[in-house]
Amino acid sequence: MATLASNPSAPAITQNPDIRYLGRLLGDVIRAYGGEKLYKQTEYIRSASVDRARGVQGADLTDTGLEALSLDDTLAFTRGFMLFSMLANLAEDRQGVAAEPGADVASAIERLEAEGVGRGAVLDLLSNALIVPVMTAHPTEVRRKSMIDHKNRIAELMLLKDAGRAETDEGEQLDEAIFRQIALLWQTRPLRREKLFVADEIENVLAYFRDIFLPVLPALYARWERVLGARPQSFLRVGNWIGGDRDGNPFVQAEQLELALKKGCGAAIAYYLDALHALGAELSLSTELAHVPQAVLDLAEASGDVSPSRRDEPYRRAISGIYARLAATCTALTATQPARPASLKGEAYGSPQELRRDLVTVAQGLASEGDGALATGGALGRLIRAVETFGFHLATLDMRQNSAVHERVVAELLKQAGVESDYLALDEYARIALLRRELANNRPLGAPFSDYSDETASELAIVHAAAQAHRTYGPACITHYIISKAESVSDLLEVNILLKEAGLWRAGVDGAPPQAAVMAIPLFETIADLEAAPGIMTAYFGLPEIAGVVKVRGHQEVMIGYSDSNKDGGYITSTWSLYRASQALEPVFAEAGAAMQLFHGRGGAVGRGGGSAFKAIQAQPRGSVQGRIRITEQGEVIAAKFGTRDVAMTNLEAMTSATLLASLEPDPISARDAERFGGAMDALSKSAFAAYRDLVYGTEGFKEFFRQLTPIQEIAGLKIGSRPASRTKSNAIEDLRAIPWVFSWAQARVMLPGWYGVGHALTAFEDKALLADMAQHWAFLKSALANLEMVLAKSDLGIAARYLPLVEDQAKADEIFGRIRDGWARTHDGLLAATGQSRLLEKSPALDSSIRLRLPYIEPLNLLQVELLKRHRAGEEDARIKEGIELSINAIATALRNSG
């Protein structure tokens, strides 16, 4: 089986100079701290693997050098290769390998103007827009945060080097400082010893909110204001699932929800206090030299600052008062004192709007004299924008739970209240009628002295905690309630019943519509769910009370799941079903008079919706974006996309510019072509679905083959997340979470969820000219095939075959793997034919070089992993074997980047 790495037609790799530099320093570190023997072993294995990847004659006969490694050597070698991949990732991010041409707001506006869409239309769209990356705790980040912190420090030092600096601010020579950080990486334990708790996940993501999003979003808005020539509302915000996502995670309770919000509030206010402290030092304007409006003088007088040294400095006095009030707010909301206590006493702010009002008063005062330069932009302008964007809650926290849980809880509430003894026995129509009657009044079903099951008590505690959070942090802290496995209208109404228990749903009185402080949002995940989505939403909007709520709110969200739809139907069917569902939902929302807000449940791997977000958003059907989109960001993708401020700005620009283009750009595909292309995709999807389902769900022994070929058992034991690998105790593929499903296939280099079935569809499709036309001109298929191509380039069935001895039934293993190998060849050949290429990634040279650079560093890790798995599963109990397996998983995931 030919692979990209050994393709003789592929051009030579032009290595990134940063990779050469950092790789050399890593080699020096290994020699200095690991010893000359380890350094020479590592160099021998590396060079031999590189020669094999380049197709050097006779390289296949060369000893790999792996058998000479002792267990201790294996652990050290694996760490070395993992660190090289981490540093290579850093180097590529610095050189903008992930950045895409035109993926910024300025370019998007220029492109729209060229197509006759003016800035006025852009500003109108942004006035009602909402773009939200939502952080989740889905466990595919295998690195400890300490490792990521050292990597980010290296990135900061490299920026100083770019600026021509020879020393750090502390006087340390830059090369030595970078060497020191790599040495610290080398001696930092990469694996977690203890399982992560939800509190740990909250702390981990809080670092990104605090260090990246808080400073980056105001800076981006300042840039966009210059581009737009106007100040838009804060349409780009951040969301969070960690502490609110209970689906399959019994460790998320009311206590964790409260902790997530309290920690977020503390981080936001600490950032504001630091900014105010700096402003107080800066705004030294004197009444002897500047005109100061009365509103600022009043604010200064109300501050209580009577220091003689600041008597003529009203801005400083005003800031002192604001600081004192905000410090009091910190204590009131978080029960903690700020790191820098206030010197004055102040009354806590009742809302972030009150804080913003005082800051705007200061800004207007500064703008009242001269040309306004002191008020526009700058630190004060960024602080005002931060308060508008983050409030006192920092990030909106979503709640999520499975519909089956809601069903049981509502059934128990109805029974205990004497309303309905057997809700679960009712059909859908009877359930809807009963739930609507309950939603029409404000009488709670729950009673404080009732004896509820642990599940019901927990769910009631959650909604009451959410209601208390609204009172504490403001209604923006929790606005969404996601319903996993939503399959009916009653699934949505049940959530509104639970919200009513805490006063978050209020029945309308005197003809007024009901009030819903939190939106119930269905998550459509499987292929069948996606097909049923338009009908369910039509029926839901048809209920008068729901129509009233939606009309007041102006929009409704629907979440569509990439992961489970892929596990259910394969890559191309999942992708097409998501497109079709989005397309079919648009007229349903238009009929209801509601703006459609789609929440895309994407993962890092292509099998879970990964790939270029810039291309994926633009590839959405016209009318389905409308300036409103939310997207999950999870696992290792968070560090990859938001690990440094520069990388975060690049990715947030891409997300925003793609949303503008998808919302406002005219559809380049004619109605006739759209119909032709859609019909062709229906046929391709049907064919791919049949092939995928036949292999994964229709092949006897496939479940055992998967569990024995891949390190799924070992991945389940990694300390990388608080949630279990499966939703239930079943070992069926249907019950396995999509994350370990995709992650396991990536480790064994098969990557089956990202491509299987597509080859059968492409080769069986007769109109090859139509296929080529679609691949060249249709954004949807171009994006889908680009992601598929990346997966094929990272897969290697030659290496995957080395895992076959792990399967107990060798005859069955050979049979199933033969089908997989045939499917890969069909996909490879069909893709090249459709895209008009002679080899994979021929038209993507930067990505091509990036992947081929990494392949020689992944192959030895795979070979070591296989040997360690054999020994582990044979019953060897040496702790170093288990540690080696976990290290190899870590290293392979780091090298592949988007494997989960």
Automatic annotation (TrEMBL):
What is the reaction catalyzed? oxaloacetate + phosphate = phosphoenolpyruvate + hydrogencarbonate
Q: From the UniProt record, report the name of the gene that encodes this protein.
A: ppc
Which keywords does UniProt give here?
Carbon dioxide fixation, Lyase, Magnesium
Protein name stated in the entry: Phosphoenolpyruvate carboxylase
Q: Can you tell which superkingdom this protein's organism belongs to?
A: Bacteria
Main EC class of this protein? lyase
The record, for InterPro entries, names: PEP_COase (IPR021135), PEP_COase_bac/pln-type (IPR022805), PEP_COase_Lys_AS (IPR018129), PEPCASE_His_AS (IPR033129), Pyrv/PenolPyrv_kinase-like_dom (IPR015813)
PANTHER family xref list? PHOSPHOENOLPYRUVATE CARBOXYLASE
- Asked whether the keyword Magnesium is assigned, the reply is yes
Cofactor(s) needed for function:
Mg(2+)
What organism does this protein naturally occur in? Answer: Sphingobium olei
Q: Does the keyword Protein biosynthesis apply?
A: no
What are the protein's GO molecular function terms? Answer: phosphoenolpyruvate carboxylase activity
Function, in words:
Forms oxaloacetate, a four-carbon dicarboxylic acid source for the tricarboxylic acid cycle.
Q: Which family does it belong to?
A: Belongs to the PEPCase type 1 family.
Active site: residue positions: 138, 567
Subunit comment: Homotetramer.
| NCBIfam families per UniProt | PRK00009.1
Enzyme Commission number(s):
4.1.1.31
Pfam families reported in the protein's UniProt record: PEPcase
